[in-house]
Amino acid sequence: MEKRPISTRLELSPDPYKSSKFFTFPEKPSDIFVVLMRIGLFVCLIASISLAIYSAFSKPTGWFPYPYRSVRKISDVDSRPTNISHILFGLAGSLNTWRDRSRYSQLWWDENTTRGFVWLDGKPDVDTLRPEVSTPYRISEDWTRFKYSSSQSAVRIARIIYDNFKLGLPNVRWFVMGDDDTVFFTENLVSALAKYDHNKMYYIGGNSESVEQDVMHAYDMAFGGGGFAVSYPLAELLIKILDGCLFRYYYFYGSDQRIWACVSELGVPLTRESGFHQFDIRGSPYGLLAAHPVAPLVSLHHLDYLDSMFPNKTQIESLKSLMDAYRVDPARLLQQSFCYDRSRRWSISISWGFTIQIYTSIQMAKDLQVPLQTFRTWRSWSNGPFTFNTRPVTSNPCEAPVTYFLDHVEEVGKSGSFTSYKKFVAEDANKCKTTVGIDNIVVSAMKMDPQFFSEAPRRQCCEIMDRGKLKNGSLRIRIRKCRVRETITM
Question: What are phi and psi of 132, to 5 degrees?
């Protein structure tokens, strides 16, 4: 065989640097882009394989966080029973209303324990803020871009839950919304919410008392003035859809109706708590307060539009009287009890911390628990209908119950209380001689356990002391738990 020259063999042998066309060095400048693309594809292939292998054998580390990732940290979660520190309030206010309405929050807000803010539509000046009011404020942002048909402020108020959530405050279990004229009874609010698992999605509140309002808005909507609560998991999901939802429901009137519609899109129904009071009524709230349901009093609203709760007192003075009783025995406030003076054939209804009614005839419990209609509907000022039964108020003053109002409350040790109620005589009832000599009624009671409402609640019983004999013009009554087989049948 003919031997080739060494130079020829070298030219025909494979060049190690030209063994693959993938890495062929470009002979033309125009081929540089093609080479770079090939190198990029190769790097991406290697990176993808490495990422897949690492993901298969390691725990997730959250490389790709979702939008609106939860601001809750592991260190924020505690296992204690729900208390006031777990609630974050969001109050809807405005520069036009806050100075006057802050009188209400001043009654219940405790700067040492209460967390939250009143959200305003602009920066207040010195004249807008009362120096004695401790409720902190924040200014709403990014709300004027939303479409609306009737109320732009309703959009802003609907976004308060978004604004509160994005603050990222620790240990929040419940976001509670209300108006700047909503009065909350915070210990009772805690009792109401503590019944529910805050790790699940809850939307809790009450609807309107006036059917015309529920028909106009929704029966299964929590009315915002009475306040409503949203659990953390629901709030976390709600804020993801809220802005888009506000655009979809631009034609609604109120902020609470917008929130209701958005919560409905998440499939969460309203959980009703009868202690939230929108008070969509006109006139006197006396009948409702004197026959409160067996539930903790959580909130009151629209008090500027109602007659004063106590005669011869302003509404703020009336609230202070209620608060005096509330601070002694929060859970018992407005809880109704019935008892009978069999010798006189009297029926007695007690709304603890507020009023006592003495009927000089036998009234059944099924009737006493029905509110006297001392009020009218919110919008049309008509006689109904309401979302509960009512009793008519008699036109004969001598057939009306004799009423007594809270005059004094006193704590007895750490577990009991005395409350005294003073007779109120209307001008047109002076000719009636019933219950002459009973000027005051003194009621003793043990403090009610806040857990009372978390089980199967039962209205407590009362009994007339000393066989109905008067002491210094006062009738003495004791409220206690009903015995197992006890009834109050006359």
Answer: -85, -5
Residues in the chain: 490
- With 0-12 / 13-18 / 19 or more C-beta atoms within 10 angstroms meaning exposed / middle / buried, residue 313 is middle
What CA–CA distance (Å, rounded) separates 220 from 106? Answer: 31
End-to-end CA distance of the chain, in Å? Answer: 134
Q: For the chain, what is the total number of helices (H) and then of strands (E)? A: 12, 19
To the question of pTM greater than 0.85 for the whole model, the response is no
311 Cβ partners below 8 Å, 6+ apart? 405, 424
For CA atoms 379, 384, 390, 394, the dihedral sign is positive
Beta carbons within 10 angstroms of residue 13's beta carbon = 8
Q: How far is CA 467 from CA 53, 239, 340, 439, 486, in A?
A: 86, 61, 11, 17, 19
447/412 Cα distance (integer angstroms): 10
- Report cis status (omega within 30 of 0) of the bond before 136: no
Q: What are phi and psi of 402, to 5 degrees?
A: -80, 130
91 and 116 Cβ atoms separated by less than 8 Å: yes
pLDDT tens string, the chain, 490 residues long: the values are 444 444 443 343 444 444 444 445 455 555 665 556 666 666 666 666 655 555 444 433 333 333 444 455 444 567 899 999 999 999 999 999 999 999 999 999 999 999 999 999 999 998 889 888 899 999 999 999 999 998 899 999 999 999 999 999 999 999 999 999 999 999 999 999 999 999 999 999 999 999 999 999 999 999 999 999 999 999 999 999 999 999 999 999 999 999 999 999 999 999 999 999 999 999 999 999 999 999 999 999 999 999 999 999 999 999 999 999 999 999 999 999 999 999 999 999 999 999 999 999 999 999 999 999 999 999 999 999 999 999 999 988 888 999 999 999 999 999 999 999 999 987 666 667 566 679 999 999 999 998 899 888 999 999 999 988 998 889 999 999 999 888 887 6
C-alpha separations of 171 from 162, 306, 315, 377, 480 in Å: 17, 37, 35, 40, 37
Within 10 Å of residue 399's Cβ, how many Cβ atoms? 13
